[in-house]
Design goal:
- The structure holds two protein chains of two kinds.
- By secondary structure, chain A is α+β, with helices and mostly antiparallel strands.
- In chain A, 19% of the residues lie in helices and 34% in strands.
- Chain A contains six helices and 24 strands.
- Chain B contains seven helices and no strands.
- In chain B, helix 1 runs parallel beside helix 3 (77-98).
- The chains are: A alpha+beta, B mainly alpha.
- Chains A and B meet through helix 4 and helix 5 of A and helix 1 and helix 3 of B.
């Protein structure tokens, strides 16, 4: 009885989930971000997490703070949400969904926004400008086929009039490509080694230097200057201790792959994958990413080891991620960036392992020097382009150019974690879409 | 008792450091034409300790007669063992770090190595003429008995049930309590032999 009273009191103090609305409409796109607009009120002061549990086994959490008697509308990123939770209260999203061929998001400021009527094939969904500005640059509206905006915005299509909007809708051919939460194509580029690279390299370097130093100290110094024999022996031991002091301690390392995708209009977005690995079984307490990321699983089975993606206004952090040796975890995200390279009839800069796609047919071109003409007609034959092209080819589309920028693998410091021993970036991929 | 000239045993130290560093290179640098199945982060520390054991059981006793001829008292040989462990400490710590072995595991493994080094030194100091038999015995309990046990496990051959537990290499891989028992037995035997060798030399 007393326990029941305590439970009732606890529930009374908890905030109430008043409304949950999917920003892109009641549609089912389970492999992509489908953010939720959650309205919460609370009878007392509340500070805690609003959590969306995903059908893939992980959760997305956002910190909320509500004053007593207050009401908050929170934009919560979610992927295939099965349960929304705040405090002890839970909410299950409705299974009633519509199945349109196309989802078009419309900036609510556009004069014709209220005139657009959804049909069975096209779902028009109005979105306030403020939400658009917060969601679109982070790639959170990827579930939409088209986003009509009033003013230029990365990822949006400017359509000032109803006619321009109709033309834009009529020109949709495919859903814009994106990294999906179950994405088999990216896994062949996952690194295969089991050793933390910096530890392996440091251990090898140390062993070589230590053996050489011991040889010099014991055969040259101690023999030639017997008075300093003990000092030479102590020096070798001291070198060993100093060598260990500089040895990296953590077990987790990350390999990053980036693809710079330039649209025909010249807008550039960078898609990035981070493969997180550990030499031993461990649970990473917190991994901070510089942008919003989603997990990328090799199958639709998701994960059996739950973890939480905690989002903030810019980046996100992954908490409680369990890692096993030889089994990487993958996270991917996108964001706009300034254009550094363009390709039209010719390539501006040299690129390696180039592949050109024309009318859906691809051909491996190999390494291209700056100024090389990009072929318009493709002959039959050629060699396969390889796993890196296969991982990113969705972004090339039916007409485009793929290549690897001529740089080496280099150390990086994009991700922060106390468990991180090493982070490296593989040479970035450049993709120019022609259509 | 004066300190033995620790810094003059160049060959011993260089063999020790060279063997361990060479082991590191073989395990990490992919220099062999085939991959070593045991060269993984999880088993790296064990590989380093097994290498230490191999050295102190089979190579270290061969240095003992020359150290005794230079005037070192038999119990003083433990100072050389201490020097060997000092030199190998950074390598063992790196191994423990790679394999996430905690400090107690590191200490236990190094005490195990010291105990077996004491046994080897004791045999070579007290019974130098029996050194070939000692080496044969090490081979027998370290390799032949575990192989016999393996045959029993795989083919049903009859083997003494304690076969595998005698091996000092098993002691390095075993859990804490059994390893301490083995360490204690081997270490005590080694120290008794060293003490007897010291007494005999003093009497002479």
């Amino acid at each position: 009885m007393i326990a029941a009273c305590f439970l009732l009191l606890a529930l009374q103090a908890d905030p109430v989930i008043e409304k949950v609305e999917p920003v892109v409409g009641s549609v089912r796109r389970p492999l992509l971000w489908t953010p939720l607009r959650v309205t919460i009120s609370s009878p007392s002061d509340f500070t805690g997490d609003l959590v969306a549990k995903s059908g893939f086994g992980f959760s997305v959490a956002r910190a909320v703070a509500i004053k007593a008697g207050g009401r908050e509308v929170v934009l919560l990123p979610a992927i295939d949400p099965t349960e929304i939770r705040v405090g002890q209260r839970t909410f299950r999203p409705s299974d009633q969904v519509v199945r349109p061929d196309r989802i078009v998001l419309v900036d609510a400021r556009l004069p014709y926004a209220s005139e657009l009527a959804s049909t069975e094939k096209i779902l028009y969904q109005k979105i306030p400008a403020e939400e658009l500005a917060r969601l679109l640059p982070r790639g959170l509206l990827e579930a939409a086929d088209l986003v009509l905006v009033q003013e230029p915005m990365s990822g949006g299509t400017v359509a000032a009039t109803g006619e321009a909007a109709e033309r834009a809708v009529a020109s949709i051919v495919d859903h814009p490509p994106s990294l999906e939460v179950a994405d088999r194509a990216v896994w062949p580029i996952a690194p295969l080694e089991n050793w933390v690279p910096s530890k392996k390299n440091w251990a090898l370097y140390f062993a070589t230097v230590y053996a050489f130093a011991a040889f010099v100290a014991l055969t040259v110094v101690a023999k030639r200057f017997p008075k300093f024999g003990l000092a030479a022996v102590a020096g070798v031991a001291a070198l060993g201790i100093v060598g260990y002091a500089a040895f990296p301690r953590s077990q987790m390392w990350i390999v990053g792959h980036a693809a710079e995708v330039v649209s025909p209009a010249g807008e550039t977005r960078e898609h990035r994958l981070w493969f997180v690995q550990s030499a031993l079984e461990m649970t990473a307490s917190r991994i901070e990413f510089p942008r919003l990321v989603k997990p990328v699983f090799p199958t639709t089975g998701g994960t059996d080891d739950p973890f939480t993606i905690r989002v903030d206004e810019r980046g996100c952090s992954v908490e409680g991620l369990k890692l096993l040796p030889g089994r990487a975890a993958c996270f991917g995200g996108e964001e706009p960036r300034p254009t550094t390279l363009r390709a039209g009839e010719k390539v501006d800069q040299p690129i390696r392992a180039a592949v050109v796609v024309r009318a859906g047919r691809s051909r491996y071109l190999g390494d291209l020097a700056a100024g090389t003409v990009v072929p318009v007609e493709l002959a039959d034959g050629g060699i396969p382009a390889g796993p890196q092209f296969d991982a990113w080819k969705r972004f090339v589309g039916h007409d485009g150019l793929f290549g690897v920028l001529p740089s080496e693998e280099r150390p990086a410091a994009n991700v922060k974690s106390s468990d991180l021993a090493d982070e490296r970036d593989r040479p970035p991929v450049f993709i120019q879409r022609f259509k | 008792m004066r300190l033995p000239p620790l810094h003059q045993s160049t060959a011993l130290y260089l063999s020790w450091i060279g063997a361990l560093c060479g082991g590191f290179v073989l395990l990490l640098a992919d220099v062999l034409p085939f991959p070593l199945p045991f060269a993984t982060p999880a088993s790296f520390f064990l590989a380093v300790v097994e290498l230490e054991l191999f050295f102190v059981l089979l190579v270290w006793p061969l240095f003992v007669p020359s150290l005794l001829r230079e005037g070192c008292a038999a119990p003083g040989l433990m100072l050389y063992v201490g020097m060997l462990l000092l030199f190998s400490l950074p390598l063992a710590m790196i191994g423990a770090n790679v394999s996430s072995v905690d400090a107690s595991g590191l200490v236990r493994s190094q005490v195990h190595v010291a105990a077996l080094a004491a046994l080897g030194a004791g045999m070579a100091a007290r019974l130098p003429s029996a050194l070939p038999w000692y080496l044969l015995g090490v081979f027998w309990i370290s390799a032949a008995h575990p192989f016999w046990f393996f045959l029993q496990h795989q083919l049903g051959a009859k083997a003494p049930s304690i076969s595998v537990y005698l091996s000092p290499f098993w002691g390095a891989a075993a859990g804490a309590a059994p390893a301490w028992v083995q360490t204690g037995l081997f270490g005590a035997a080694g120290l008794v032999l060293l003490a007897l060798a010291g007494k005999r030399k003093a009497a002479a």
